[in-house]
Amino acid sequence: IPVYTDNFGPFGTPTSDTYRTAVSNSTKRLLVMMICFNHEEKDLDEELLIKLYQEFAQAKNIKKLM
Prior knowledge:
Elements: E1 4-6, E2 9-13, E3 16-17, H1 42-57
């Protein structure tokens, strides 16, 4: 399992995160890293991910980094 790190140290894996990076009711911004094993379905998976965040988390101003 990959472990994600930044300048402050490890902060999560695909199945968990640390207290430092946990989402709470006061969260205003977040970074979602989508792990893609089938590039043929990447665009559909990305569209679904965005739709779900918009519908269930009222996400706005979504920007793709890659």
